[in-house]
Amino acid sequence: MRNQAYNFIKKHINATQINRFWIIYYSVGVVGFAIPYTRELFTNLIGLSIFMSIALLFLFHKKWNLAFIASSVFVLLGGFFIEAIGVSTGIIFGEYQYGEALGPKIMHTPLLIGLNWWMLIYVIWQMVQKVTTDTFNQLILGASLMTGYDIFLEPVAMATDMWGWQGDIVPVQNYLAWFIISFIFFATFKLSKNRYNNPVAERLIVTQIAFFVLLNLINQTAGL
Questions:
Q1: pLDDT 10s digits, 158-170
Q2: CA atoms of 51 and 85, how far apart (whole Å)
């Protein structure tokens, strides 16, 4: 039954449709957050959006081997426990706490946060491998893109109750931590020889970045 459902989905949903869906979905999201009356509803959908995005990435991923699974589990669990240590001690990223937008928590840390780390590493790793074949350049570029992504993410995260910083100021320490942790996670993918070309991955990250850029503009002009 499970294989039949999977084959049915694969037969009737293609990558072109999903790539169009990303644009429509995140465009609707921008409008939903911009309108005060629907903002709470769309905030409550953040966790579901992350889970849905990962499910669609899984659907179009082809190279399911032991190395890929092991490195993915390392990133997923590593991302979660680093965040759990960080939020409990303030040592890694700085002083912050999670809100309610990302759903259920363990150790004051949303269960989805490890999946979110994996999603970003997965998508950006595919992109950097197309840009350069040099290992060091791949790791530096990947970590830089991850850190740049976080720069756009942080103001929106604070405005939508994903997490908040002490004094509402994002410390430089946070960005340094993102760079170093991302570098390590990308190195894990490199050592595992993870090579794939997921046809829905790159459009996802591009639309997400556009989403955060637009929400930052809205937040600066009208507030979220």
A1: 999 999 999 999 9
A2: 23
